[in-house]
């Protein structure tokens, strides 16, 4: 055997351990798993399989409401704390108070069915998302990354622009004037929602929204009343009331779409058909590899609140319908968990 033949024999039989194959050719590594029989993913899940979700409510003792949600190795804790925002009518300034013109006060007394305009305009719900130190190997200390900022904005948009889970009425602190018989708005509750990802293995949006919704459902605010003598809001130390989430529950489900045409058929001049897979609940490795992604937000009544698609041209009507169907299944699963809070 010549040296050339020996080299060719060595190269033709060259193989890589799975971790090396995953590192140098992640797309092919994922594809080989999907093409196996039965089709599986590197995590050993089926393409249509979500990671199990768990919920622990009221985990934080100093918050008005909190929840920890874990989906696989992604874990998010959300805490809700309410603070009183006073409304001033006269002159002078007071810390934590807002001075409004008379016509603005009249608008506040109107119907609460304002599609979240008051909540957004006055900043009555303030969500904040951050990645905890060491939550992922991609985490770097310093200013929030583009990923963290974009995820926080998507979550904020869902809560305030799309879902309107929290009606203005549940945040009002009113006073009935015995002299005139009229009810005036004296203050509002402002809800500060801090969401921290303590472990990240992909799909942070689904876990963050589920934790936020569960924390809001678990929230109990002190009974607040207007003291006419002190001219200020007084909160009870013992009595509380549950936060009204009349907007209902809502959850997101995220997917990845993978497509592949047989290269041998194409080389032989055949019309290769596209094989497609819809992957539910991407982990961190899959998020880095899959370029075509879909997010479906389902709310009460299993209605579609929002649908997003980014990247790629593989997904067709059939794949989008499957995403919606799987999202409704995930909604029912998460609804059972949160409804028990």
Describe this structure in words.
This protein is α+β, with helices and mostly antiparallel strands and 341 residues long. The chain folds into 2 domains: 114 residues, no CATH class; 190 residues, 2-Layer Sandwich (Ribosomal Protein S5, domain 2). The chain has 10 helices and 13 strands. Strands 1, 2, 3, 4, 5, 6 and 7 form a 7-stranded mixed beta sheet that branches. The chain has a 4-stranded antiparallel beta sheet with strand order 11-10-12-13, with helices on both faces. It is elongated. The N terminus is likely disordered.
Task: Describe the structure using short key phrases.
disordered N terminus; Ribosomal Protein S5, domain 2; alpha+beta; ribosomal protein; 13 strands; 341 residues; four-stranded antiparallel sheet; 10 helices
Question: What's the multimeric state?
Answer: single chain
Envelope shape: elongated
CATH class of the largest domain: Alpha Beta
Percentage of residues in DSSP E strands: 25-35%
> How many individual β-strands?
13
Q: Which percent bin holds the helix content?
A: 25-40%
Per CATH, the architecture of the largest domain is 2-Layer Sandwich
Number of domains: 2
Structural class: alpha+beta
CATH superfamily of the largest domain: GHMP Kinase, N-terminal domain
CATH topology of the largest domain: Ribosomal Protein S5, domain 2
What low-confidence regions span 5 or more consecutive residues with pLDDT below 50? 3-13, 99-105
Order of helices and strands: HHHEEEEHHEHEEHEEEHEHEEH
Average residue pLDDT: 86
Largest sheet: 7 strands, mixed
N-end to C-end Cα span: 74 Å
Q: How much is the radius of gyration in Å?
A: 26 Å
Q: Report the total helices.
A: 10
């Amino acid at each position: 055997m010549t040296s050339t033949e020996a080299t060719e024999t060595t190269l033709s039989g060259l193989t890589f351990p799975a971790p090396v194959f995953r590192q140098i050719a992640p797309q092919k590594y994922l594809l080989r798993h999907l093409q196996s029989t039965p089709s599986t993913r590197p995590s050993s899940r089926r393409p249509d399989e979500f990671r199990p979700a768990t919920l622990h409510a009221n985990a934080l003792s100093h918050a008005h409401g909190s929840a920890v949600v874990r989906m696989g190795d992604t874990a998010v804790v959300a805490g809700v704390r309410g603070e009183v925002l006073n409304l001033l009518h006269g002159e002078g300034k007071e810390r934590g108070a807002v001075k409004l013109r008379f016509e603005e006060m009249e608008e506040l007394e109107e119907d609460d069915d304002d599609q979240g305009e008051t909540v957004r305009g006055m900043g009555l719900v303030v969500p904040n998302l951050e990645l905890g130190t060491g939550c992922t190997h991609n985490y770097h200390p310093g200013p929030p990354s583009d990923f963290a900022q974009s995820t926080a904005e998507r979550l904020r948009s869902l809560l305030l622009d799309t879902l309107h889970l929290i009606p203005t009425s549940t945040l009002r602190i009113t006073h009935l004037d015995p002299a005139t018989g009229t009810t005036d708005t004296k203050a509002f509750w402002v809800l500060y929602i801090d969401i921290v990802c303590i472990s990240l293995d992909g799909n942070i949006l689904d876990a963050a929204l589920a934790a936020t919704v569960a924390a809001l459902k678990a929230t109990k605010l002190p009974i607040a009343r207007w003291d006419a003598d002190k001219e200020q809001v007084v909160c009870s130390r013992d009595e509380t009331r549950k936060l009204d989430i009349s907007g209902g529950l809502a959850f997101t489900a995220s997917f990845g779409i993978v497509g592949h045409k047989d290269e041998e058929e194409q080389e032989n001049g055949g019309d290769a058909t596209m094989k497609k897979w819809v992957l539910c609940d991407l982990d961190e490795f899959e998020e880095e590899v899959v370029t075509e992604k879909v997010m479906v937000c389902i709310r009460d009544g299993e209605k579609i609140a929002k649908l997003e698609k980014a990247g790629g041209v593989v997904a067709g009507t059939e794949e989008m319908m499957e995403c919606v169907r799987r999202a409704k299944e995930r909604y029912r699963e998460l609804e059972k968990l949160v409804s028990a809070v």
